[in-house]
Design goal:
Keywords: Signal. The chain is of the alpha/beta class and 397 residues long. It has helices at residues 2-12, 17-39, 58-63, 100-111, 124-130, 133-142, 171-184, 222-226, 236-239, 259-272, 296-306, 324-329, 341-346, 358-367, 378-385, 389-394, and strands at 82-85, 115-118, 146-148, 153-156, 159-166, 187-192, 195-198, 217-218, 241-242, 248-249, 252-256, 277-283, 286-291, 314-318, 332-336, 349-351. The chain folds into three domains: 2-44; 46-166 and 295-394, 3-Layer(aba) Sandwich (Rossmann fold); 171-291, 2-Layer Sandwich (Hypothetical Protein, Haloacid Dehalogenase-like Hydrolase, Chain: A, domain 2), CATH 3.30.1240.10. The N and C termini lie far apart (56 Å). The structure holds 2-acetamido-2-deoxy-beta-D-glucopyranose (2 copies). One 2-acetamido-2-deoxy-beta-D-glucopyranose is lined by residues 93-95, 97-99, 355. The site of one 2-acetamido-2-deoxy-beta-D-glucopyranose has 7 residues, from loops.
């Protein structure tokens, strides 16, 4: 109609041809602007996997906001609905604590409806202890999915009332581990569900507390507990998991000693338990004895299946060898800067180290979880991307 008006003006007043042309230009521009706005949302369809290593793609990750009604992207990668994070070396800093920025990002992810969960070698109480009082208490109270003990214990969204999977050592192997530790006069603990048990406390067993794992609970001779003959009236939290006969079921054992002694013992223990158990070491002072055939990646896969979610919708974060499997399984994977080179090479994205809030950086860049309010217009989005994500997170503390 405006165009008609301009045309009439041009016809009736030949001297105003220049004016009409200018008018037309304004009309054309106004037609162009809405189409550029319409084009903008297509950026939401950019797979966030377009590597963060390339700054140009940062815009698409920042622009993406969580939207549960979004469907799979045709390109093969897909929106993130679940977040599995390793704890030590990833979510936690090098002194096994977590920064306010990481706590904030974890809670905000929960609030926005992401299924976010620990995938850790820790016990469940040990993971919650390390998250800080407020968040730890919240998860304890409300329940949380989680992969604990490197996949030997998997809980669904309702926590311990929602056991997805557990693998325990067979009774004969458990007994031979206990006998072996006694003959070596070595300190050892047994993980059983959420409980950590020992025969008696020593300065070695108490070292677990420095990693914010619960202090092992002494229950006397473990062989009696393994046979269901212990008479102690323990509360459920310190009794460990029992079968119908009251026999203690053990997920894993840890031998704790000086690094040199652990070094000297390892080969011998491996020989004794060949074909019966897996021997691993995350720390030089601890030798772990695990049942055969369970892994963090396997636990994560079982949990995602339980929650009826596709692994393509999962973001996995990690730093260590035992995280590689889940990083490979996940549709989206992040390694922290402190990660082992072989771990960085399997991850799609790299973020800052665990001591520089790499976790919150990843959630900001891949899920748009940021404390700054959503921008009002595309122009503001553009300018925001020029700011470093580091600046945004450091304002939190
Ligand atoms: C979420 O995505 C759906 C489908 O693409 C869209 O219709 C809806 O407007 C989006 N909601 C928000 C809040 O972005
Ligand atoms: C780790 O986090 C805790 C809790 O925020 C803090 O007290 C500690 O200084 C941090 N350590 C490092 C190495 O950043």
């Amino acid at each position: 109609m405006k165009q008609d008006k301009a045309a009439t003006e041009a016809a009736s007043l030949p001297s105003s041809i220049v004016f009409a042309a200018r008018h037309l230009l304004v009309i054309l521009l106004s037609l162009l602007i809405p189409s550029s706005i319409r084009a903008f949302p297509h950026r939401h369809d950019c797979p966030p996997s377009a590597s963060l290593r390339r700054p140009a793609s940062r815009l698409s990750s920042l622009v993406r906001r969580h939207n549960t009604s979004l469907n799979d992207h045709s390109s093969g990668t897909s929106v993130i609905r679940a977040i599995a994070t390793d704890f030590d070396g990833t979510f936690l800093n090098s002194s096994h604590g977590c920064s306010p920025a990481n706590v904030w990002a974890y809670r905000e992810a929960m609030r926005r409806g992401y299924a976010i969960f620990p995938a850790t070698g820790r016990s469940r109480p040990g993971a919650f202890n390390a998250m800080g009082q407020v968040l730890g208490e919240e998860l304890r109270r409300e329940g949380s999915p989680g992969v604990y003990l490197n996949g030997l214990l998997v809980y669904g969204p309702d926590g311990p009332n929602d056991l997805v999977f557990t693998r325990t050592m067979d009774a004969a192997t458990s007994e031979s581990v206990v006998e072996m530790c006694r003959s070596l006069e070595a300190s050892f603990v047994a993980y059983s569900g959420d409980a950590i048990l020992c025969e008696q406390r020593t300065h070695h067993t108490d070292r677990l507390a420095t990693y914010k794992e619960p202090r092992p609970h002494p229950i006397g001779p473990l062989t009696d507990a393994l046979r269901g003959r212990d008479t102690s009236r323990e509360s459920s939290g310190t009794r460990g998991v029992r079968n119908g006969q009251g026999e203690l079921l053990v997920n894993k054992f840890i031998i704790l000693d000086e690094a040199e002694r652990i070094d000297a013992l390892r080969g011998w223990v491996e020989g004794r338990l060949a074909g019966k158990a897996t021997i691993t070491q995350a720390l030089p002072t601890m030798l772990e004895i695990l049942p055969l055939g369970a892994s963090k990646g396997d636990g994560v896969r079982r949990l995602m299946e339980h929650m009826q979610m596709d692994l393509r919708h999962m973001l996995a974060l990690g730093d260590a060898e035992n995280d590689k499997e889940m990083l490979t399984l996940a549709g989206h994977s992040v390694a922290t800067a402190n990660a082992h080179a072989s771990v960085r090479s399997v991850a799609q994205h790299l973020v800052s180290s665990n001591d520089q809030d790499g976790f919150s950086e990843a959630l900001e860049r891949l899920c748009g979880i940021t404390q700054t309010p959503p921008p009002p217009s595309p122009a503001v989005e553009e300018s925001r991307t020029t700011r470093s994500s580091r600046k945004v997170t450091t304002t939190l503390s």
